[in-house]
Amino acid sequence: MAVQPPQRLALLGGGFSTDDDGLLDDWVLARARVPRPKVCFVPTASGDAPAYVEQFRTAFRSVCPHYDSEPGRRPSYRAAVAAGRLPAGWAVEDGAGVLFTQGVPTEAVARVPGAEVYRVEPDGSGGVREQGLRCRVLTPSHPRPRTEQ
User: Fold this and answer.
1) How far apart are CA 103 and CA 71, in angstroms?
2) What residue ranges of the chain have pLDDT lower than 70?
3) Contact, 25 vs 112, CB < 8 A?
4) 60-78, pLDDT tens digit by residue?
5) 120-58-123 Cα angle (round to 5)
6) Strand pairing class (104-110; 117-122)
7) Percent of the chain with pLDDT over 70
8) 99: nearest Cα among 112, 114, 117
9) Which string of DSSP letters, residue by residue, matches 109-123?
10) Kind and range of the H or E run holding 59
11) Cβ 88 vs Cβ 122: under 8 Å
């Protein structure tokens, strides 16, 4: 029996809590290898144990969600990576998602045209190099009922 490599999924800035179309949620669930996958919902990133933070950094280096929607987020992340306060990492705009297999991005998607995922790393001259991943735009496979909140 062939062993499948582990997959990790980063879904930041979108999904069930903000999007009526459910495109990102459907994409996440379609990547699962079982009919009823285990899903972890993390409501906050504060207060994590230091060992857990280090495990996250080892797997993903650093990640910046809401790269396009929160004022100051992009310049502050770029400055932290350039100065070495954060290691090279991934920046994810609202409405985008990325699948990592063995630590390498294997699929990047967006629920809206133009949403992107970026690799951000020091350029060796005190700045950063930012390289976008091509995101496949998701389309609905079936209409979803609208829910009121």
Assistant:
1) 29
2) 1, 6-19, 37-50, 52-60, 142-149
3) no
4) 578 888 899 888 999 999 9
5) 25
6) unpaired
7) 67
8) 117
9) EESSTT--EEEEEE-
10) helix 50-60
11) yes
